[in-house]
Design a protein that fits this description.
alpha+beta; about 180 residues; ten-stranded antiparallel β-sheet
């Protein structure tokens, strides 16, 4: 069985048991791993107010409130350890197709997708709950997800399904590129 078909089947398994935290292996199309420079230097992303950073305050801040141009944004973000690109599926055809596939697999009414570039030991959000189920995937590097009673370590091609209203927080033991996919039912 090829990797992609096996990957889809493991995601379907996660979808079938939407009440449990489930770690799965999924080998995505390599075109999901977009270049940081390509994204940050994209004037459309800047103009559409899609680029955020998370700093020691653990709050998400819009880059546009601190920068006036794409080149200023690029320089500004050099010192930030966690960058978030909101709703990447609306700007990239590969992500749109990927989200449409997930929408079918999870029988969702809506899917949104955020791309994170995290440096080692980057500050992240405190423990929080989401009003939708979340699928977090590690495209490169490592990311740890802590829950109340356990944690899940993600390496490249590892994914974790987090049910609605499950308390969790992320940690970055290495530089990483990860996806956070909201699954609305």
């Amino acid at each position: 069985m090829n990797d992609f078909k096996h990957s889809i089947l493991t995601l379907m398994h996660a979808a079938a048991d939407s009440r449990k935290i489930i770690k799965v292996q999924y080998v995505p199309d390599q075109s999901l791993l977009l270049s940081y420079d390509e994204l940050i230097m994209n004037p459309f992303l800047f103009e559409s107010e899609s680029i955020f950073f998370i700093d020691e305050s653990r709050q998400s801040s819009l880059v546009n409130s601190s920068c006036n141009s794409v080149s200023e944004t690029y320089l500004f973000l050099q010192n930030k350890s966690l960058i978030k690109i909101n709703n990447i599926e609306t700007y990239n055809r590969t992500y749109l197709k990927f989200c449409d596939t997930l929408k079918t697999i999870f029988k969702a009414t809506k899917i949104d997708c955020h791309l994170y570039f995290g440096k080692k030991n980057a500050p992240s959000f405190n423990f929080h709950k989401d009003s939708m189920a979340v699928l977090i995937g590690c495209l490169e590097g490592k990311k740890d997800i802590k829950f109340k009673k356990r944690s899940v370590s993600l390496e490249t091609n590892d994914w974790v399904y987090i049910p609605v209203n499950t308390n969790h927080k992320a940690q970055y033991p290495t530089d990483s590129v990860t996806l956070s996919i909201g699954i609305y039912k």
